[in-house]
Design goal:
The chain has helices at 3-17, 215-226, 244-253, 275-286, 329-337, 343-364, 383-386, 389-406, 449-459, 476-481, 511-518, 526-534, and strands at 37-42, 56-58, 75-79, 84-85, 90-92, 103-105, 112-119, 123-132, 138-143, 146-152, 160-169, 172-180, 185-193, 232-233, 235-237, 259-265, 290-296, 369-372, 412-416, 432-437, 464-470, 489-491, 523-524. The chain is an alpha/beta fold. The protein is globular and about 75 Å long.
Length: 535
Amino acid sequence: MTIKKCLSALAAAVFLASASGCKSVGEANLFFRDESNSEDSVQPLVTSPPLSTDAVESFPDYPISYPEIEQQDTGDIYEAENASLTDGVSIAADRDSFSGYGYVSGFSDGGAAEFSVIAPSNQHYDLTFCIASSKEVKCSVSLNGEIISGFTTTADDKFTLITLPGVFLVKGESDISVSAVGDICLDYLKISNNTSLSDISYDADGELSNENAAESAKKLMSFLTENYGEYIITGQYVSDESNSELDLIYRTTGKYPVIRFAALDNCGGSFDANYPAVDAAAEWHRNGGITGLMWHWESPGNQPSVYAAETDFDLSKAVTDIDIANMTQEEIRGLYGEGKLSGECYGLILDIDEMSGLLLSLKNKGIPVLWRPLHEGSGDWYWWGASGTSAYKWLWELVYTRMTEYFGLDNLIWIWNGQSADSLVDKDTFDIASVDIYTADGQQFGSRYEQFAALQKLVGSDKLIAISESCSVPDIDAAFRDKAVWSFFGLWYGEYLEADDGTYSDIYMTKDSFIRAYNSSGALTLDEYTAMNED
């Protein structure tokens, strides 16, 4: 039994005995029982650079908890004309091929229809809406007053089935509502028992894409793989080398995250400002944690920016058929001088080589790195995604090959964050697949099982699946309930964690829920990680 499971069992026994979240937009409420004792305190395991040494309040270890699941077949249909309708939404019967005695329309002002459904058991259900629309319309789905998901209709003007898979319903009555920001015709809601979640597995093979990977990288990857499905490893982005975000988490929860994520950049074309960030990453490793880095890559040229709208850099002009990944800079400069390579291509090489030089310092110290370049590659907001998926894949291959082969960066564990089938790169060039999740205002973060299942289906069960950026910490209980036990998460900094006065911000997650997440038996924190590595 692992240390974490021992602690969980002890917490469960105690309970029984006393029973008396810069960024992009992406697409279970649990009772919190405060059992804290203000006289207890814990001391930080990490004291530099410069982390808090103050005693803080400690909290109990919360066992994973969710209602017992009982699979039952069902296929109940609830007609929209029998639902509760808001002002503006009304019953109609002008179309063909509807069920019942009508359907409802008039959603153009954000109207809603609420169904009162009866779930025969505690289990995951597929919610299928029969909807017709003449254009693509964004719809939002709420469960008992909380937004849980959304979808976009088709535009063929025919009744079409749209399914939200794997929504967990408690036995008995629940209210499910659908609202829209454009006119739709809603015919009915069908609830049926879900079977797709059974396809999720945690059988990643743990093989690194770089066959010459360093032992330190292999060891870290083995740890991630062995504990995949057992825990969600905690992670936090920092804004600078002060580690104020990590201190805030410690002061709030009594725990430090395992992974310290940070962004490297090349502001104004210079890489020099990254040396303190690289040193801080190395220091976190020396103190027992895992270091994760991403590249906030400002484009080469006269208008450097990460954002496509702010630069004139065109990645498509850099693409070449010449195999330059293992050439020396002198050879590449010669091709550029001969006009065989564009200035855009030459500029990319110079940047890749500069970044590789920074990462070499971590390699030389034997420090493995969770490495995430070219993030959110399926979007057009960053320049590396704005020229289409073909150019993106070419750049990924160039970065991977040059860093791995030419510079011999064998300490990198590669995270692909392309987020779409079209931008999927060669599976032999990444180790972990991840998604960035920023929920809409008012939407519960939950487990995000939809993204987990979709990403695993895309890349295969042999790859680890993780949340590389988020606006909130996943609901740990819901994640285990929904079979969406992410390898790790990385909460972004700023308002997602910290208020203007330096205290915990509850904009995206209540303080009690944050404390419970960090003290859950399903979440791995720094003290537990270091103890496991001492075994």
